[in-house]
Design brief:
Elements (H helix, E strand, L loop, with lengths): L2 E8 L3 H9 L4 H4 L6 E5 L2 E6 L2 E7 L10 E4 L6 E3 L1 E6 L2 E9 L6 H24 L1
Antiparallel strand pairs: 1-8, 2-3, 3-4, 4-5, 5-6, 7-8
């Protein structure tokens, strides 16, 4: 699959960013183009997106800055979303790899890219304000 890795520099320590992003309850605070709200149930996390409700799960807490998550648009379909936070000088670099799914048109992939860029910039604003 075609992919691209997008990144943003944030003037905050990696541990602070990791703690914020790894808490899925914070998703609507920064991933505003994708996540309108989130709720936890016995079955797991459900996000409400412009495309409708979707499941989501995130990798277990770790000391490596790995924030990979899986989005489940419909039962049986899982979309892998690799994400990392790494030290970069006095701040951090947040990296997000976006895969182009086979059914995506050029326009859809371009729109997804814009949404990820918007959300990474939103994360930067949120983190640098705190």
């Amino acid at each position: 699959m075609q992919s691209k890795t997008l990144s943003v520099y944030i003037k905050r320590e990696p541990d602070l960013i990791y703690d914020f992003v790894s808490n899925l309850e914070n998703l609507p605070k920064w991933a505003t183009s994708f996540c309108k709200s989130i709720m936890k149930s016995a079955e797991g996390w459900t996000i409400h997106t412009p495309q409708g409700p979707m499941g989501i799960r995130i990798t277990e807490k770790n000391s490596m800055g790995i924030l990979d998550h899986v989005v489940i648009p419909v039962p049986g379909i899982e979309v892998s979303v690799p994400m990392r936070v790494v030290a970069n000088g006095a701040g951090s670099e947040v990296l997000f790899t976006l895969f182009r799914r086979p059914e995506m048109s050029d326009d859809q992939y371009a729109q997804d890219t814009r949404w990820v860029e918007q959300d990474l910039n939103s994360l930067k604003r949120v983190m640098e304000k705190s």
